[in-house]
Amino acid sequence: MSFAVEVSQLTKTFKRAAALDAVSFTIGRGECVAVLGQNGSGKSTLVRLLSTLLLPDGGSARVFGHDVVRDERAVKRLVNRVSVEASFFKKMSARENLAYAARFYGLTPRTTRAQIPEILGRVGFPVERSDAPMEDLSRGMQQKVALARALLTSPTLLLLDEPTTGLDPRSRREVQDFIREVRATHDTTTLLCTHDMREAETLADRVGILDRGRLLALEPPEALRRRYGAGDLEDAFMAATGHAYADEIVEAA
Amino acid sequence: MAALRHQGIALVGVVERNTYLVKRYGMWEVAFFLWTIANTLTIVFIADGVKASGGHLNVERQTTILLIGAVLWAYLGIVFEILTETVAWERWEGTIEYTFMAPLARSVHLGGMGLFAVLYGVLRTAALFAVVALFFGLSFPHADFGAALLLLAVASVSFVGIGMVTAVLPLISPEKGAQLGFIAQGFLLVVSGVYYPVSVLPEWMQWLSTVSPATYALEGIRAAVLDGAGVSDVWDDLWPLLLLGVVSIPLGLAVFRAGERYAKRHGKLKRSG
After folding, report:
1. Is residue A133 part of a domain?
2. Among candidates A73, A87, A149 on the partner chain, residue whose Cβ is nearest the Cβ of B93
3. ipTM score over 0.90, yes or no
């Protein structure tokens, strides 16, 4: 079987603290994998390593067979990302920001003139506001533009790093619905990092638990609940990370 | 061929984005232009001041010498500022990770920034030159502006190469790196005879002036504007500029790539979170 993502013993350390500690897993083509973890657990580091924004200290990561270090340019063509911060040139409009991002992926002005309004419409962004500066848009609207930016480039691996954190319930649901739509209509593999257990359970085929840089489990939600004898994913997460802390205390002693 | 086309579109994208930003910050651009005029006037008035205090000099010629120095100072300021913004502005906006994860050759990325910096810098400084020349009623009966522009264009290759080196500094020091562009600009011009002949400098500074592209740009442009020197007359200034250009672009790219690797190794690309 060919994997969309193959991560083997991936390690990243910042100032002697392990952000990722020998993490290994695979993601199948078209699969959606969610990774749960507390702040500082290593989720964003994992996303940055897969998107070539960090260099690993050890191990390897491959995206559709391309090594993220050696075949950086090939990986970049396949990957796009939506992060918790909807980062844009705030004085520029949604249309201008999207056009700027699209050029880097080889999309001509003629192509983007047609595609930008279409994709903004699909993510539920009011197209009549596409010429307003980003700074005049709500956080929810900015995040929809961030989704549009990622999808405009037709990524085969979509990295979602807490895409709904900080959004109001309506905006969160709209973003989640759009992620579902993308999965249903595109040949896209998705890695979703989130704090939202319900989001992980409803969107992902498998759910991983990352704790202090270590991947404790990666299984379908039902199997994860069974493994930890938990009624829901939140209890499973608490049980998993609680055991890990207890182990550390024993080891330290 | 497809890859080349892709990179060509990306280069247009970099120029396009900078054009959007100039448009969106239009009033700020006007304010900075007025500041540059005021700054240039403070320098160019020195010729009148020397005469008023009893000095003997050809005021019009000296005014033009100072004007060319001040205009090149302003031009370098624009080129270095735009190139330094390759990282600094994107870091501030938080967009840098999206730009750096895009399949864009770094040479094209920096080349696009350099191309915009040169085009915009030439327009801004040509306007500055015209405004200040009109203010002083300067005339240039013998000037060969074509040769002057050619010298500036060739010198700009080196300036962009040096600008690539300064562009990496905000990656290494996010807080202070951007300011180091001004230091590079100052050092480059102080050894190049920006408002005075290089011959008045101490010997070690004169040696440094031989490896500064600004030296040849200033010397050649002054000869073209003041004495009507044509392209063949300024060849002695042109060939060192060509040589420095050939060296500085690969050097600038190599330094930037090393800085990028350092930032990716130590997690310096991200702004926060």
Report:
1. no
2. A87
3. no
pTM to 2 decimal places: 0.88
**Strand extents, DSSP E, chain A:** 3-14, 17-28, 32-36, 58-63, 66-67, 79-82, 157-161, 189-194, 206-211, 214-219
Q: Does residue A103 belong to any structural domain of this protein?
A: no
Domain contains A193: yes
* Contact (Cβ atoms closer than 8 angstroms) between residue A241 and residue A216: yes
DSSP secondary structure code for residue B199 in this structure: G
Count of domains observed in chain A? 1
> What is the C-alpha to C-alpha distance for residues A26 and A45, in angstroms, rounded to an integer?
17
**In chain A, what residues touch B269 (CB-CB under 8 Å)?**
48, 53-54
The pLDDT tens digits for B84-102 are 888 888 888 889 999 999 9
Angle formed by the axes of helices B145-167 and B59-93, nearest 10°? 30
In this structure, is residue A134 part of a structural domain? Answer: no
Nearest to A77 by CA among B81, B245, B2, B167: B2
Q: Report in angstroms the alpha-carbon separations of B146 from B64, B120, B130, B150, B221.
A: 17, 18, 15, 6, 10
Assess contact for A36 and A209: CB atoms under 8 A.
yes
User: Min CA distance, A67 vs chain B (Å)?
Assistant: 14
Residues spanned by the domain of A80: 3-84+156-252
Q: Which of A89, A116, A130 to mutate to test the interface with B (most CBs of B within 10 A)?
A: A89
d(CA B70, CA B186) in angstroms, rounded, equals 12
List pLDDT tens digits, range A14-65. 988 889 999 999 999 999 999 999 888 999 999 999 999 999 999 999 999 9
What CATH number corresponds to the domain at position A58?
3.40.50.300
- Pair B104, B10: CB distance under 8 Å: yes
A144 touches chain B (CB under 8 A): no
